[in-house]
């Protein structure tokens, strides 16, 4: 059996990132609704808007790199994310206060993974892109720098919310 080509590996890599972006978008929407009418809800709603834009940007890069979407991964990621929301938390009907901490930690990990993906794509652009691509390293690098800055701001905002939730929920 032949080893996978770099393009095959890029397809898997970006497909996994798209699946994560789809799951993160759903989790952020759910968390924003759960905190509607609060400052946390407003921040989460703003972050949701940005994550939707980031996902569109990832799709744009996938098209530019001629990487096909693997929809089954996005569906699977959404199912796993939804099942994760159903985990036992010591309460049958109401939302556990601990859920906020756990959700914020999961969202923070997702944003950090997204930033790593942008760094990887910037590295690929700086290396000249995959064989056969016409990736302009200068414009791609600038675009990835903007996306990385946004991811860093998102991570900082999530970390503030997480720390506040830890104090509120776990410190009493």
Keywords:
DUF222 domain-containing protein, 5 helices
Walk me through the topology.
Layout (H helix, E strand, L loop, with lengths): L5 H29 L4 H26 L6 H14 L12 H30 L10 H34 L2
Helix pairs in contact: 1-2, 1-3, 1-4, 2-5, 4-5
Oligomer: single chain
Q: Under CATH, the topology is which? A: Ferritin
pLDDT below 50 for ≥5 consecutive residues: which ranges? Answer: none
Number of domains: 1
Shape: elongated
What is the ordering of alpha helices and beta strands?
Answer: HHHHH
Share of β-strand residues: under 5%
C-alpha-based Rg, rounded = 18 Å
Q: Main beta sheet: strand number and arrangement?
A: none
**Helical proportion, percent range:** over 70%
Number of helices: 5
CATH level-two architecture: Up-down Bundle
Protein name: DUF222 domain-containing protein
Describe the structure.
The chain has one domain (about 5-170): Ferritin (Up-down Bundle), CATH 1.20.1260. The protein is about 75% helix and about 0% strand. It has five helices and no strands. It has helices at about 5-35, 40-65, 70-85, 95-125, 135-170. Helix 2 runs antiparallel to helix 5 (about 135-170). The radius of gyration is 18 Å and the shape is elongated. The model has no long low-confidence stretch (mean pLDDT about 85).
């Amino acid at each position: 059996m032949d080893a996978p080509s770099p393009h095959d590996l890029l397809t898997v890599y970006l497909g996994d990132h798209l699946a994560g972006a789809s799951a993160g978008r759903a989790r952020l929407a759910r968390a924003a609704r759960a905190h509607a009418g609060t400052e946390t809800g407003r921040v989460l709603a703003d972050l949701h808007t940005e994550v939707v834009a980031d996902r569109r940007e990832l799709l744009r890069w996938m098209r530019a790199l001629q990487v096909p979407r693997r929809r089954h991964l996005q569906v699977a990621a959404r199912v796993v994310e939804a099942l994760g929301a159903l985990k036992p938390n010591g309460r049958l009907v109401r939302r556990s206060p601990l859920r906020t901490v756990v959700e914020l930690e999961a969202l923070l990990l997702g944003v950090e993974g997204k930033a790593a993906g942008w760094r990887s794509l910037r590295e690929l652009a700086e290396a000249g892109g995959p064989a056969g691509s016409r990736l302009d390293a200068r414009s791609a690098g600038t675009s990835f720098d903007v996306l990385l800055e946004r991811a860093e701001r998102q991570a900082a905002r999530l970390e503030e919310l997480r720390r506040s939730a830890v104090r509120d929920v776990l410190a009493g």
